[in-house]
Each structure stands twice: as structure tokens, then as C-alpha cells.
Specification:
globular, Glutaredoxin, 5 helices, two-stranded antiparallel ribbon, 6 strands, alpha/beta, 4-stranded mixed beta sheet, 149 residues
Amino acid sequence: MKIHLARLLMLFTALLPTLPGTAWSETNPYVPKLKAGDSPPTGLGTALDGTAFTTTQFAGKVLVVTFWASWCGPCRKELVMLDGLKNAAKDRVEIVAVNIESRETFRNMRRSLAQLAVTTTNDAAKEHADAYGVRGIPHMVLIGKDGKV
């Protein structure tokens, strides 16, 4: 079955308002810190080999950033879907999955992460998660080719 990039992006866009952490009420503690048109924070965590990733590395491409943890069932399901999106989109979309667990836990997941086409990074101190306003996971941010949310 061939997955079309446009259809997957439309599905994600349609589902975003219904996911936890995406409600638009000013009284809701899950109101996203970033709004459409904002410039996102640049940090995206570090890979297992210590390489730091930033949003500027992906300039000119659609970038999907998701924050996740191994104990989060919906996060694991989302990673599988994002892996399919990356495989279907090839070089047109970049996906960075930022793990918010300890460095040791992230390192222990090495085999399962190696099978993913998405870039996986770690943010054990949650400094990047805080900058993105993450209050619950999974937490996804779409960044356009123009570098804006």
C-alpha cells in the first residue's frame, strides 16, 4: 500500500486539535507555547553519539518535531506512523523524535531506535522540551520550510 505524503500531512493536521496538549483555550494549562507563525527554539537534543541537532540543520524542509518517552504507548504508536511518513516522504520531510528520558534509558533503546528512519535525539534535562512548552507527551510541532511553526 502506497502512502501519499499529502494525505498523511492532512491527517496529522486534522488530528492535531484533538490531541492532548493542543487545546486552544486560554484557561487550559495545555495551551501550546508556540503558535502558528512563531519561530521555534533551535535546540532538538543530542543523538546517541553526542551529535547535537538544531532546527537550522533542516532549513528549507518541512520538519516534524515530536517529544516522546518509551513508557508512553501513544508515543510509540506515533513513532511508527512518523517512521512510515519519513519512508514515504524521503527527503521532503525531516522528522526528529526527542526522547525526554534519562540518557541511560535512551541508550538502552539503541536497537529499536536503529530501525527507525526518523532522527532520534535525547533531552534528559528537558531543557528543549521546556523551550517548546511540552507539558504532556506525545507533543508534536510542525515547522514549515520557512522555519516557522
